[in-house]
Design goal:
Elements lengths: L3 H15 L13 H14 L4 H9 L2 H4 L4 H8 L1 H9 L8 H11 L5 H20 L7 H18 L4 H21 L1
Helix pairs in contact: 1-3, 2-3, 2-8, 3-6, 3-8, 5-6, 7-9, 8-9, 8-10, 9-10
The structure holds zinc ion (ZN).
The site of zinc ion has 5 residues, from helix 2.
């Protein structure tokens, strides 16, 4: 059996390769893999289970790269692939439907997927504060932060430290927005 750390490093390399050449939407155009590393780091720092941290590293591969659910199952097993599947939007649906589903489906997800969703939203709120997409005006950022809060409300309650970090980040994002108005 490879060690937990060896598995985490294998997932990090897998994600880095899958997202090679992709950048974040923000003005800083960071490599996309920075985001999944940050989500994994947030979970690790808050004592989330190994499967959630592995799934965090891999969470955007199926949605945004050529990687399939079957690839993940073969490489990392059914549990991790299952958590990624829970965190993956159905891209055949219109964007507004996907956003509504993230709010309504959150409470039905596994504890690992709930923690992953919350850490994902924390990372995205930080990105909106520090490197928003150039074409996002104040109204769009306001809408995004509000929606993040509604998604978070449905996935909190598993990990109190993570809940507190989300709340602090959400408040910070709102005050950042107010100072930017
Ligand atoms: Zn993400």
């Amino acid at each position: 059996m490879p060690s937990d750390i060896a598995e985490l490093m294998r997932a990090a390399v897998f994600a880095a390769r899958a997202h090679a050449g992709q950048t974040r939407k923000g003005a800083a155009a960071e490599p996309y893999v920075n985001h999944v590393l940050e989500v994994a780091e947030i979970l690790a720092a808050h004592g989330a289970p190994q499967a959630a941290i592995l799934a965090a590293l891999l969470h955007d591969t199926v949605e945004d790269t050529e990687v399939t659910h079957e690839d993940l199952t073969l490489a990392f097993g059914a549990e991790v692939a299952g958590v990624v599947a829970e965190a993956t939007d159905d891209k055949t649906l219109p964007k507004e439907t996907r956003k509504a589903l993230q709010v309504s489906q959150g409470p039905k997800k596994s504890d690992a997927a709930k923690q992953l969703k919350l850490a994902d939203k924390i990372s995205n709120l930080r990105a909106i504060m520090h490197s928003p997409p150039r074409n996002w005006d104040h109204a769009r950022r306001t809408e995004y932060i509000g929606w993040s809060g509604r998604v978070a409300a449905g996935v909190k309650g598993v990990n109190p430290g993570l809940d507190a970090l989300f709340d602090a980040t959400y408040r910070e994002a709102l005050s950042h927005l107010a100072s930017d108005a």
